[in-house]
Amino acid sequence: QVQLVESGGGSVQAGGSLRLSCAASGRTFSTYSMGWFRQAPGKEREFVAAITRSASGYYTDSVKGRFTISRDNAKNTMFLQMDSLKPEDTAVYYCAIAPWGRSVWVPKSYDYWGQGTQVTVSS
After folding, report:
1. Helices and strands, counts by H and E, the chain
2. Distance CA 11, CA 120 (A)
3. Which are the contacts of 19, defined by CB distance < 8 A and separation ≥ 6?
4. Does residue 17 have a pLDDT over 70?
5. What 8-state DSSP symbol labels residue 105?
6. Which of 73, 91, 104, 121 could join 50 via S-S bond, C-beta 3.0 to 4.6 A?
7. Of 5, 6, 8, nearest in space to 19 by CA
8. Region for residue 105 given its phi and psi (left: phi exceeds 0; alpha: psi -120 to 50; beta: otherwise)
9. pLDDT digits (tens, 9 = 90+) for 59-95
10. DSSP H helical segments within the chain, as ranges?
C-alpha cells in the first residue's frame, strides 16, 4: 500500500550538512507517525528522529540540536535536515512510517520502510 524512497545521502566532511528526503507513494500517511532510523556497520538499527501527526518532533540525544525533522503532508514527503555532522553519524539512514499510537522510539512500531540512503561523514 505504501512505498517509501529515501534520497539526499552522500559524503561530507565533519561539520557539514545534508538534507535527506523520504517520498511516499500509495496510501497517504497523514495519520501516521514518520521516523528516521540509521544503521552503521556492525551495529543495531538506531532511532534517530520522528514526527507525529500533530507535528511533535522527537530526537535521540546524540542528534538533538543538530538534526531537524519535518513533513509535508500535501506532498507525502518527510525530511531530515542534518547539520554539524560528525563521523559517528555515518550510517545507512532509513525512513519509516508507523500507525499513530505506537511508540515512535523502536523499529517494531513501523510498518513501512524505505530502502535506505548512505550518509558518510569524514573527519
Report:
1. 0, 11
2. 5
3. 8, 79, 80, 81, 82
4. yes
5. S
6. 104
7. 8
8. alpha
9. 999 999 999 999 988 888 999 999 999 999 999 999 9
10. none
